[in-house]
Specification:
The protein has 163 residues and is of the alpha+beta class. 33% of the residues lie in helices and 21% in strands. The chain has 2 domains: 41 residues, Arc Repressor Mutant, subunit A, CATH 1.10.10; 78 residues, 2-Layer Sandwich (Alpha-Beta Plaits). The protein is extended, with a radius of gyration of 21 Å. This is Lrp/AsnC family transcriptional regulator.
């Protein structure tokens, strides 16, 4: 990966709506060169998707997100890959990560309510033969996601204290 492409990726990560013309200006490069680099990164799946970060708490109160710690027994010959694939194919699953530490997989799940997430864990996730245990953590409030702060914070109105 060239330094030029890395700079383009950083700029797109900050704001995916930046045009090749704007990126070219920011990098002091030709627009055609930037457009070609972006096209190449899309073709080789370095750039997988352009996404919008939404603060769903402003729109829906019913949506529930949970992080589930999953301990599993790896499959012979495939390790964690096969089980991870079975899990990430469920539509409720937003993300799956292989972890170091006390558990093997971290699974991020989204549901309309607590019961829906609980039903996913008890009816779909836990019955998988390689799953040894699960521990579900419901996300109560998101303060920051993907580098974006959701809360409008007020300036500190306290009086300064001097010695």
């Amino acid at each position: 990966m060239t330094e030029f492409k890395l700079k383009i990726l950083e700029l797109l990560k900050e704001d995916a709506r930046r045009s090749p013309a704007l990126i070219a200006t920011m990098l002091g490069a030709a627009e055609a060169e930037v457009a070609e680099a972006i096209k190449e990164m899309e073709a080789d799946h370095t750039i997988v998707k352009y996404a919008t970060v939404v603060n769903w708490s402003k729109i829906e109160d019913e949506k529930v997100d949970a992080l589930i710690e999953v301990q599993i027994t790896p499959e012979r010959g495939r390790g964690f890959e096969g089980i991870a694939e079975r899990i990430y194919l469920y539509p409720e699953v937003k993300s799956v990560y292989l972890m170091s530490g006390a558990y093997d997989l971290a699974v991020e799940v989204e549901g309309r309510n607590l019961k829906e997430v609980a039903a996913f864990v008890s009816n779909k996730l836990s019955p998988i033969e390689s799953v040894l245990s699960t521990k579900t953590h419901f996300i109560l409030k998101k303060y920051k996601q993907d580098g974006i702060i959701f809360e409008d914070h007020e300036d500190d109105h306290r009086m300064p204290i001097s010695p």
